[in-house]
């Protein structure tokens, strides 16, 4: 379930990047063109990173739990002001999955499943 939440967040970021890129290509006014390109690159990089976290969580590795936790904390940081700033549906759409993912990250079953360490490099 936690893999699905993280993958859904990555898909939402990819959708936001597509919308942002479409707006940029259609001539929406921006303060800095290269700054907008950089923002688009950050959205794409973060989406791909979240996809990697979801895949390796699904495989049972240990390291993606920290990455998923950091991502959820970022979402909470954006979700609370969105919720209180007049966009309750968007804020709830961010806060509910993030809070669910944080609770699941500390569930005993998830910790037990995600305890696989990376394999040792091959010896010469």
Quick recap:
The protein is mostly helical. The protein contains five helices and no strands. It has helices at 2-25, 33-59, 64-84, 88-105, 108-113.
Q: How would you characterize this protein structure?
A:
The N and C termini lie far apart (39 Å). Helix 1 (2-25) runs antiparallel to helix 2 (33-59), helix 2 packs across helix 3 and helix 3 (64-84) runs antiparallel to helix 4. It is built from five helices and no strands. The chain is flat. The chain has one domain (2-113). The protein is mainly α and 124 residues long. It has helices at 2-25, 33-59, 64-84, 88-105, 108-113.
Key features of this structure:
single chain; 124 residues; mainly alpha
Assess the beta-strand content as a share of residues. under 5%
Can you tell me the overall shape?
Answer: flat
Radius of gyration: 17 Å
For the record, give the distance between the C-alpha atoms at the N and C termini, rounded to a whole number: 39 Å
How many distinct folded domains? 1
Query: What sequence of helices (H) and strands (E) makes up the elements?
Result: HHHHH
The tally of beta strands, per DSSP, is 0
Q: List segments where confidence is low: pLDDT < 50 over at least 5 consecutive residues.
A: none
What class, by secondary structure content?
mainly alpha
Mean pLDDT across every amino acid position: 91
**Helix percent band:** over 70%
Number of helices: 5
The biggest beta sheet is recorded as: none
């Amino acid at each position: 379930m936690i893999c699905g939440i993280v993958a859904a967040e990555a898909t939402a970021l990819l959708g936001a990047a597509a919308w942002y890129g479409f707006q940029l290509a259609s001539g929406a006014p921006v303060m800095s063109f290269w700054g907008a390109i950089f923002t688009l690159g950050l959205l794409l990089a973060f989406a791909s990173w979240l996809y990697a976290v979801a895949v390796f969580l699904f495989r049972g590795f240990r390291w993606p739990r920290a990455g998923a936790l950091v991502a959820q904390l970022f979402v909470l940081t954006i979700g609370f002001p969105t919720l209180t700033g007049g966009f309750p549906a968007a804020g709830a759409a961010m806060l509910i999955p993030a809070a669910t993912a944080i609770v699941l990250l500390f569930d005993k079953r998830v910790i037990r499943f995600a305890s696989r360490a990376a394999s040792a490099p091959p010896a010469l």
